[in-house]
Structures are given as structure tokens and as C-alpha cells.
Amino acid sequence: MSRKNTLADLMKAAPDPAPQPLSRGAAGGSASLGAPVGSGALRAMGLSLEKLSADAGKARDLEAMIAAGDRVVELDPTLIDGSFVRDRIGEEATADASFDSLMQSISEQGQQVPILVRPLGDSGRYQVAYGHRRLRAVARLGGKVRAIVRPLSDVELVIAQARENLERRDLSYIEKAMFARRLEEQFDRPTLMAALGVDKADLSRLLTLAASLPPDIVNAIGPAPRAGRPRWSRLAAILTEPYAQERFAALAASAEFRAAASDRRFTMALDVLSRETPAQASPMAADGALEVSAPSGAPLARLEPGREGGRLVFANEAFSAFVREKLPELARVFAEMQRAGL
């Protein structure tokens, strides 16, 4: 069967249904469109249109690959390595509803669009340029992955990798920023702009944001697809304040934070860190004691050095009651941080 006929078969559409006559109203004989369409039907229609649009996009991708003379082969997923530049934040990129939907689609309809890989010399192994999520989905489902094998330079690989993600809108803003930062370690600015499809100003904003955020905090929060540059910039500014990163570490160790989705984690971090710290630690006193005071400067407590960690002496009765109330929670967070190795 020729490639042209193969594409024709793929692109065939179902015949249009025969037009139905409009119903007539009981009075006046005027044409009526029937009962109003319910919101559920409209939502179903919207989902159907989205699916048709996605399917058309997949068909265009496949048509372009075949027109370029590429041949689709089936490879063992265990023979394919990831890109040398990560574009996603953590493996949690696979732990979301869209990845579950992708797995279901491949399970029911097969892998519609091949991934792109390059051969790694004569080793018999390959490196993926784009299609990381499809590769992981097929690997989890079992079986071979459909792929285009094409010799690519490092620059060609990262441009293909970034362009595919941008066209499909797969990367969140922070993922794009961190990806730009990783690319900057190996490539020049023109390559970054070509790969990310941005101008100098946009690239500068991406790199500035990435440089202002500790990578471990970004990784702990995840991609947070609903958080754009303004909110991430606000979080970056807050993290420069005294004890902000320590407060985030305590939050990240909590069971609620670890169980939350990425967008919820971001919101939790911004909410907790935006609150004014109730007390601030002053430098060590001459005798080695740690004095804690309110923002107004009023003394609250003093941690005096001694055996078994020292002694905490309160100078404010309300603060003493507050600490007593919070001690069980502090002990729980401390235990979770120790288990997490923080």
C-alpha cells in the first residue's frame, strides 16, 4: 500500500448524516428548532470538538512525517534514553489527569503519533527528542513504541524537543523557565530563542525567574500549570526574606503538602510564606543564648544553652501559651522532616 493511500485511509471522515427536517410547531405552523439544548449536551459537544481537533492535529503530524520521507519503526522502550536536557519538573509530570488520559487513549486507540529519537552511535540504543510522555505511557502499558529514527545534532534535538512541547502547550511557565536555565548551561542565546520560540526580552524574563528560585523548592512544588510568571516572581521575592526557606521546608515535610496536587502545593506555599512571621530570632547574646523577639522588638523568649539542648525561658505569657499549643504539631513536622532527610 502506498504512503498516499495510507494517508487517505487515515484521513477518511465518516459520511455526513442525512439532513433532518425541522419540526413544526403546533400553532402557526412556524419552524421550530425543538427544545433548548441543555448545558450537559453543550459540554459534551465541546468535548467532542476538542477531540476532533486533537485527532486532526495528530493526523497532520503523521502526514508531515511521512511526507518528509520518515519511516515509522517499532522499538523496545527499554532501549530509549531520555533527553540530555530535562524539560519537565520531576517525574510528577506523569502523575496527573492528562497523563492518565494519554495512557487510556493509547490503550484504547493505539499510539497515534510516533515519537522522535536519534541513534546513539552503534550501541543499538536511542535518545528521545520528543514524545517523553508517550514513551513513558507505552512503557507502562507494555509493548513496542512507534518512533521516527533520525540523526540529530544536539542543537537539532533540543530545538525539536522544545518546539513540540510549545506547540502542544505541554510545559508550564516555570517548567519553561527551568528548561531555559538548563539549556543556557550548554547552548548560546540564539539557540535558546530558537528552541523556546521567544525573543530576547522573554528569554531574559525566563532566565531571571529561574535564577531567583532555589531548584529544590521548585522541584518540591512541581510544575504548577496554573501559576504564571507574576505569582512565581512573588514567591521568589518572599523566599529572600529571613527564615522563609526554613518555613517552606517545614511545610514541604507535612503530609498535607506531599499529598496535594502541584497547583495546590504552590497555593499552600504562597499562602504560608505570605503570612507575617510572628517572631524573629535575634543574634546570639554574649552568653550564647538565642533571644526571640516580636517585630516590635518586645522580647518573647530566650533559649539558653545547656545540657540536652538548653532551656527555653519565656518573657511573654501569650507567646508561652502559643508555643505550648503548637508543640505537638512542631514535633510531628520535625519527625516528618527527619524521615524525609531534611
From TrEMBL:
GO terms for cellular component: chromosome. It comes from the Bacteria. SMART domains: ParB. GO terms for molecular function: DNA binding. Residues 73-166 form the ParB-like N-terminal domain. Residues 1-30 are annotated as: Disordered. Signal peptide: none annotated. Transmembrane segments: none annotated. GO terms for biological process: chromosome segregation. InterPro entries: Chromosome_partition/occlusion (IPR050336), ParB/RepB/Spo0J (IPR004437), ParB/Sulfiredoxin_sf (IPR036086), ParB_N (IPR003115), Plasmid_partition_RepB (IPR017819), Plasmid_RepB (IPR011111), RepB_N (IPR037972). Belongs to the ParB family. This is ParB family chromosome partitioning protein. It comes from Camelimonas lactis. The lineage of its organism: Bacteria, Pseudomonadati, Pseudomonadota, Alphaproteobacteria, Hyphomicrobiales.
